[in-house]
Amino acid sequence: MPSVPKWLGDTMDVVFRNMYHPVIVTNVHYLNNQLKKVRFEGDFSKTKFTPGNVVEFRVTPNDFRHYTPSYFNTTEGVCEIVFYLHAGGPGSHWAKQLQPGDTVKLLGPGGKLSYLPAFSNHFVFGDETAIGLMNCVKEEADRSGHSFFALAETQVAHRDWIHLFSLQPAVSVESSSGDPAIPAIRFLNDVAEEWEPSVKDTCFYLTGRAKSILAMRKYLLSRGVGMKQIKTEPYWAEGKKGL
Ligand SMILES: Cc1cc2nc3c(=O)[nH]c(=O)nc-3n(C[C@H](O)[C@H](O)[C@H](O)COP(=O)(O)OP(=O)(O)OC[C@H]3O[C@@H](n4cnc5c(N)ncnc54)[C@H](O)[C@@H]3O)c2cc1C
User: Fold this and answer.
1) Residue in 1, 63, 235, 240 to alter for ligand 1 test, most ligand atoms within 8 A of Cβ
2) Cα 104 to Cα 95: distance, rounded to the nearest angstrom
3) Domain 6-110: which topology?
4) Matching CATH number, 121-236, of 3.40.50.12780, 3.40.50.80, 1.10.10.10, 3.40.50.150
5) Residue 185's closest CA among 223, 147, 128?
6) Whole-structure pTM value
7) pLDDT digits (tens, 9 = 90+) for 201-232
């Protein structure tokens, strides 16, 4: 629920108080001028986290926004998020002003996307907003002895962002506003011989721009990928505030 009247936000603070975790910002690191990694610390001992899960913050009295931890450790009480400071809405403004020592309330973790350990290959598709997710899935795949691949669609100027983390193997293609996911689909088509033999053991996590997810899902289904192997979570959509 991205925007609500203030009274409803206040009511939710009370009703969901057991799901809110007071956290303190302990570190802020600008990976570049539009990517900000923030470390939150608090008591997460009663939470459960699976890579792919999201958390939520009340970014103004009226607005809530979701974010995907790039790292979450219930024992250490640490949650790290990579914020893409781009959209210019309340979420971006809130993330931009976060400083060490700030205290905020974190809701979650939860959500419908989560790492599926039954698969031995994990493929993440997304854009600048999904870099944190890619990192989290990659670390889980490494821990589990699974294989990982990230395919990012980004603005041309951001194509090396995936290398800010140890995201390997990973490929970045140019995003296309008029043809969502088309450069990414073209890439997959060109290397189909490499990934199709292991497709039955692969889970495809599709995130980022809603229109790109739809196009990528349609393409994967057309190549014989099963519906149960495709997990989707849109992070933003044109003209929509929050999701
Ligand atoms: C489940 C989930 C997980 C998410 N995880 C992350 C995360 O880990 N890191 C992260 O940075 N964001 C993430 N997001 C996106 C985040 O919640 C906000 O949407 C984002 O910060 C923009 O919020 P805003 O209030 O600044 O802009 P909004 O008020 O939501 O949007 C303002 C305008 O900008 C457009 N817009 C929004 N995002 C983009 C974009 N990326 N590119 C182009 N136009 C855009 C909107 O369509 C709208 O027209 C996630 C979203 C969801 C739903």
Assistant:
1) 235
2) 11
3) Elongation Factor Tu (Ef-tu); domain 3 (2.40.30)
4) 3.40.50.80
5) 223
6) 0.94
7) 999 999 999 999 999 999 999 999 999 999 99
